[in-house]
Amino acid sequence: MKYQSPRGTQDILPKDSKIWQRIINTSKEILEFYSFQEIILPIFEHTELFQRSVGESSDIVNKEMYTFLDRSERSLTLRPEGTAGIVRAYIENGLHREPKPVKLWTYGPLFRYERAQVGRYRQFHQVDAEVLGSNSIACEVESVFALSKIFNTLEIDYHIEINSLGDEESRKSYKEYFQKYTKGFLNDLCEDCKRRYEQNPLRMLDCKVKADQEIFAGAKKPLEFLSGESSKTWEEIKSLLGIYKDKNNRPIQNIVTNPNLVRGLDYYNDFVFEVKSTSEVLKGQSAICGGGRYDNLVESLGGPKTPAFGWAMGIERLMLIVKEGIQKNISISFLSNQEEVFNYSNQLFEVGKENNLKLNIEVVYNPQNISKQIDTALKKNADFIVFYLDSEKVKNIFKIKNLKTREEIECTNQVSNIIDVLEREYNKIKN
């Protein structure tokens, strides 16, 4: 039998893992600048958590969850999204008693049984950031600024779509209007929209069926039903987003209002947003990040009334449009038949770290065929070979071969000397 990975999964191979790490490391650096702290969560939870948080009307709960019974007949679900688990941990571990706001971030795998799309698999990975305990519009504005920094650092082209769903009063008014508007079209709508009509009419705007979209096109939008308070908040956020400047003092020109944007989860209120890539690589599946405010979710899951805001960013989709970046580890093949080579390799790690030099070292001990080892190093795209064989030991030297320029350099057998040569020679390659 020939084994293959299950449908909807993929292997992240070494040639791609550097891009993966660049996305994670960039996100971590910028989120921690904004005082987010990392939290690590289980990948499965009790099924009821997602039913109550994500919403019975969502496609996730109705169609996409991986749910199973354990040996004690308890219903468990592989997490389909990250926010519910963070909120559960926030309540269960008493984080709601800590000074507000509590700012948490995490990353890891999620699971949805759905048709594979470009950059979206049945097992996929996200970076997730949540701010709990603040109703300040600083949450919205700061998140957009942070995400702009992340995507600018990753050097991708994007635009940000924003909308407001309004508070409870606003959404109640819109629900009444939209149900009246669509009542006469019910027989023409898809089965999902017929179900959403009773459970959460706002979600009908997220329908992907073209015929349904044409029906909804003539309806008023949630923005037209904002309460006085929600309208004031919406205008303040738009005003503050307009003052953002990058490091070159340039304003963001890529924030647009999308009155049809509702997001796919039931718990959102007021400000919602999506970040979309302009790259043609994604073939229409352009959403790379999304989120919004959810002021009632913590309370609905048994915690105290807690305003909150959060977002999630898809790693697989980003990997299709992010380049590896200019930073590169220096790759070394260390050929030696001397026992002390292992001490030297350990010292290289320490001294390289002190000099902020990233090294990848592969020790080839007792090489049987030097020419073959050189060929192997070339095939692995190594930058340098360090020789420390019998002749080098007698002379108390290292011989370093630059595989890009084909030059050979000798230096005394002190690890600090290897570091000096590697830095100098690598700058030649880089420049």
Give a description of the structure.
By secondary structure, this protein is α+β, with helices and mostly antiparallel strands. The protein folds into two domains: 14-167 and 227-319, BirA Bifunctional Protein, domain 2; 330-430, Rossmann fold, CATH 3.40.50.800. Helices cover 37% and strands 22% of the residues. The strands form three sheets. Strands 1-5-6-11-10-9-7-8 form an eight-stranded mixed β-sheet, with helices on both faces. A five-stranded mixed β-sheet has the order 13-12-14-15-16, sandwiched between helices. The protein is elongated and about 90 Å long. The mean pLDDT is 89.
The CATH class of the largest domain is identified as Alpha Beta
Sequence of strands across the biggest β-sheet: 1-5-6-11-10-9-7-8
The CATH H-level superfamily of the largest domain is Bira Bifunctional Protein, Domain 2
Q: How many domain modules? A: 2
Number of strands: 16
The total of helices stands at 15
Distance between the termini: 50 Å
Q: Mean pLDDT score, rounded?
A: 89
Task: Identify low-pLDDT runs.
Answer: none
Strand content: 15-25%
CATH architecture of the largest domain: 2-Layer Sandwich
Computed over alpha carbons, the radius of gyration is: 27 Å
Structural class designation: alpha+beta
Query: What shape does the CA trace take?
Result: elongated
Biggest sheet features: 8 strands, mixed
Helical proportion, percent range: 25-40%
